[in-house]
From TrEMBL:
Descriptive protein name: Nickel import system ATP-binding protein NikD
Membrane-protein topology: Peripheral membrane protein
Alphabetically ordered keywords of this record: ATP-binding, Cell membrane, Ion transport, Membrane, Nucleotide-binding, Translocase, Transport
GO molecular function terms listed in the Swiss-Prot or TrEMBL record: ABC-type nickel transporter activity; ATP binding; ATP hydrolysis activity
Gene: dppD
Species, as recorded: Methanosarcina spelaei
Subcellular location: Cell membrane
Species classification: Archaea, Methanobacteriati, Methanobacteriota, Stenosarchaea group, Methanomicrobia
Length: 347
């Protein structure tokens, strides 16, 4: 998928850190996250369950719990989201930035019809009269392949795939410039998954909107995105044009994810994700990596550019690349205990 038409920066995340205080210690869900999403771009964020993807998506709209601490900058169209008042955020959510959450079944009021819940969006944000809002809700349901006669039905009367389509309507109702889609096809069978993806892509491109697609499914990201960031244990380990990342992965974790796909051999990624309270010292992936060097357990690698905006956080790739733009020096991490040493299961 070509991205030559992309130019204007829509969203910029700069050195974002998100942490939570728990009884077992400080969970560092996101560490030094930086990336940008451009106008008209579909940007993929992939990684295993528990790596911090969903936390990042919610942080962009400040939808995290009160015990979350967020540091850094999230700049949307020139405004730092972290400095906005809650009133300003309410006007931003939905209208400027829409979101599709993982479990659509818990996102709806069970005692209100889906039509009335969609119509309420237009009445609240657009000031529409009840009749006009209901008409608009019907039109939007038809747009995602749901007969408008079902608008009077309740959430429990819809299948998982159909409810996901309704969630799509809610997220795209106000034609946001950016859609955050968190695992939009999770739990759906392959045929329904493909239908949902095609509808999302069609609607996003129709409005010339942008999308952050959060998924653990590399196959989904491959088919839909312009650029992809690979996340592991709370940090980005590789980022670049999707076609380049897929054809020439620079990080061993990305390589392992690719080879877990059926067409690549269906190989499991060995080991388990580390704790986000006590991550391994040095490179966080080194305990699972077959390419680890002596320094991988001591030095935390920097995200370095290899070629054409293709970045990776890996000492092995850095050593074997002739084009990498090197930092003047790397500072060794202070060793920290692993999950097994402190008796904490992986996150």
């Amino acid at each position: 998928m070509s991205i030559s038409f992309l130019s204007t920066q829509l969203l910029s995340v700069e050195n974002l850190n998100v942490s939570f205080k728990t009884s077992k210690g400080l969970v560092k869900a996101n560490e030094n996250i930086s990336f940008e999403i451009k106008e008209g771009e579909i940007f993929g964020l992939i990684g295993e369950t528990g790596c911090g993807k969903t936390t990042l998506g919610k942080a962009l709209l400040r939808l995290l719990s009160n015990n979350a601490r967020i540091e850094g900058r999230i700049v949307y169209r020139g405004k730092n989201i972290l400095s906005l008042s809650e009133k300003e955020m309410r006007s931003l959510r939905g209208k400027e930035i829409g979101i599709m959450l993982q479990d659509s079944s818990i996102c709806f009021n069970p005692v209100l019809s889906v039509g009335s819940q969609i119509a309420e969006i237009y009445r609240y944000h657009e000031g529409m009269k009840k009749k006009d809002a209901e008409k608009k809700a019907s039109e939007m349901l038809e747009l995602v392949g749901i007969d408008s006669s079902r608008k009077s039905e309740y959430p429990h009367q819809f299948s998982g795939g159909m409810l996901q389509r309704v969630m799509m309507v809610v997220a795209l109702a106000l034609k946001p410039r950016l859609l955050i889609a968190d695992e939009p096809t999770k739990g759906l069978d392959p045929d329904i998954k493909l239908q949902i993806l095609e509808i999302i892509a069609k609607l996003v491109k129709k409005e010339n909107s942008s999308m952050l697609l959060i998924t653990h499914d590399l196959d989904v990201s491959t088919k839909l995105t312009d650029r992809t960031a690979v996340m592991y244990a709370g940090e980005i380990v590789e980022i670049g044009k999707t076609a380049t990342v897929i054809s020439d992965p620079k990080h061993p974790y990305t390589f392992a994810l690719l080879h877990s796909l059926p067409e690549k051999g269906l190989m499991n990624v060995s080991g388990q994700s580390p704790s986000l309270i006590f991550p391994p010292s040095g490179c966080r992936y080194h305990p699972r990596c077959s390419n680890q060097l002596v320094d991988c357990s001591k030095i935390h690698p920097t995200l370095l550019e290899h070629v054409d905006d293709h970045f990776a956080r890996c000492l092995f790739s850095e050593k074997n690349s002739k084009n990498v733009k090197r930092e003047p020096h790397l500072i060794p991490d202070t060793p920290s205990p692993g999950c097994a040493e402190v008796g904490i299961r992986h996150c």
